[in-house]
Amino acid sequence: MSIWRVLLAIFFPPLAILDKGCGSVLIVLLLTICGWVPGVIAALVILNNPK
Fold first, then answer.
1. Residue 22: what pLDDT?
2. Which structural domain range is residue 33 located in?
3. Which end of the chain has a smaller Cβ tally under 10 Å, C or N?
4. Using one digit for the tens of pLDDT, what is the confidence trace for 29-42?
5. What are the protein's UniProt keywords (predicted)?
6. What angle do CA 32, 21, 50 make, to 5 degrees?
């Protein structure tokens, strides 16, 4: 996980996980719409997953 991905996950979470799949992007997008903090947390968790 690079520092650029972490910064991108903090400022615009769905953009940080574009390469992780459509389902992940949709989940993070919905969480970001509901509130910025849940979107950031979900993006960081997905980025931290090695798979």
1. 92
2. 3-48
3. C
4. 999 999 999 999 99
5. Membrane, Transmembrane, Transmembrane helix
6. 95
If you average pLDDT over every residue of the chain, what do you get?
92
DSSP character string of 1-51: --HHHHHHHHH-HHHHTGGG-HHHHHHHHHHHHH-HHHHHHHHHHHHH---
Low pLDDT (below 70) residues in the chain: none
For the entire predicted model, the pTM comes to 0.87
* Cβ-proximal residues to 39 (8 Å cutoff; 6+ apart), any chain: 13, 14, 28, 29, 31, 32, 33
DSSP for 12-25 reads -HHHHTGGG-HHHH
Other CB atoms within a 10 A radius of the CB of residue 35 amount to: 10
Q: How many domains does the chain have?
A: 1
Amino acid found at 47: L
